[in-house]
Amino acid sequence: MVGIWNVLTPEDKRVVIDNFTIHNFKRNQIIYAEKETPEYLWCLLKGKVKKFKEGIGGRQQIIRLIRPIQYFGHRAYFANEPYVSGAIAMEPSEIGAIPMTVVSQLIDGNRQLAWFFIHELSHNLGRSDTKIVNLTQKHIRGRLAEALVLLVDNYGFEDDGETLNIYMSREDLANLSNMTTSNAIRTLSTFVNEKVIVVDGRRIKIVNEAMLRKISKFG
Amino acid sequence: MVGIWNVLTPEDKRVVIDNFTIHNFKRNQIIYAEKETPEYLWCLLKGKVKKFKEGIGGRQQIIRLIRPIQYFGHRAYFANEPYVSGAIAMEPSEIGAIPMTVVSQLIDGNRQLAWFFIHELSHNLGRSDTKIVNLTQKHIRGRLAEALVLLVDNYGFEDDGETLNIYMSREDLANLSNMTTSNAIRTLSTFVNEKVIVVDGRRIKIVNEAMLRKISKFG
DNA sequence: CTATATTTGTGCTAAATAACATAACTGTGT
DNA sequence: ACACAGTTATGTTATTTAGCACAAATATAG
Q1: Residue A115 sits at the chain B interface (C-beta within 8 Å)
Q2: Which fold has domain B139-218?
Q3: pLDDT for B172-204, tens place per residue?
Q4: How many Cβ contacts (< 8 angstroms) between chains A and B?
Q5: Which of A38, B43, B155, B193 is least buried, going by the fewest C-beta atoms within 10 A?
């Protein structure tokens, strides 16, 4: 996906620089919460962020995982509604913010920037629709495998080429794949037994990625 | 939501008229299928259309219901991917089509049209994210109630003010609310017993809308 | 109108998943 | 090093939902 910076004119860049603020968030710190009024386009520079929705009985569903450099927080503003999901830093994160009023003005004057958002929103909408079917129709094994594949695709591996470059609690893994924490733990164990992954605390090594993708796809 | 026509210049309108074709679809006729390459912006003029995704074991999940005048088919083109969902006419429908290449050119020359799509995509993305939580976390009663509420909000009532203005098979109701057909039938029956609705074949009267919304909200 | 296919309704059983309880483990701050 | 809180692990039970079978009702095609 083409970034924002590339499509900006020198004058646009000036405006961005003048209105850009950088914020540091600690692990588990809330960036914004459901129902609040959106004001900024957030740009994750360093760290990891999760977007989630509070469900029934305090259970949360992780909607999207964000990595550098990705943008978030703008959808609700564009739709002219309060946030329907919250955002939390999963690890210490450096995040830039530009007022959406400024973004709107830039879009008004820059066709390519408008296209950037049309493209980005369309992409995310497709992913969201696909997620609906994945989460509702796959069984637990398939859902957890899919979550792990998502982590691979989103954050990749460490230098050894097989350790996931993100450490999540079992509870967050459960929240990502729509199951209870116990079931996430149990299913992870069966994957270990089947030699698909190796687990050391929150460190997860994918030792048979092909098999993992197969489980994700078929069951 | 503001329509497309209002934001077009006279020249734009000329272009649209010159490239607009009208198609008639029969009940259950496929408009386009998953994995095909998107080519048109479709505009539903008369009738009802469902967008759906094929899931595991041929089970389908209805992603979105479309009413006149709403647009569809453009997301995949904007995202530059094949369709991730198919579209079928639920009743005889009259649908306009404009080549997406033309739409793209119009967007290039018309800032307000770009805003229309940014707004529309953002709105739908929020709905989709909300649907994820509704479908995954609510129990059967809540999900079916929610589906009925969606039908009310989307298609409204007939002249009597309480009969749903859409007749769907039990199977489609199930596909909309992520459950098996038997469970849709059974749960509808309990709603009838609880005097929330009255059923006469595919004709559904909402006799206690407040209660229905309550069930939808709390389970 | 009749034959045939499809849809609806209902009961029963099986499978999947959540819920709960409890113990072991881990990390963190003091 | 210790205490405490939070996390992980595992067994057991309860609940929810799917799956299947079959009969009745309804729609559809010839």
Answers
A1: yes
A2: Arc Repressor Mutant, subunit A (1.10.10)
A3: 999 999 999 999 999 999 999 999 999 999 999
A4: 129
A5: B193
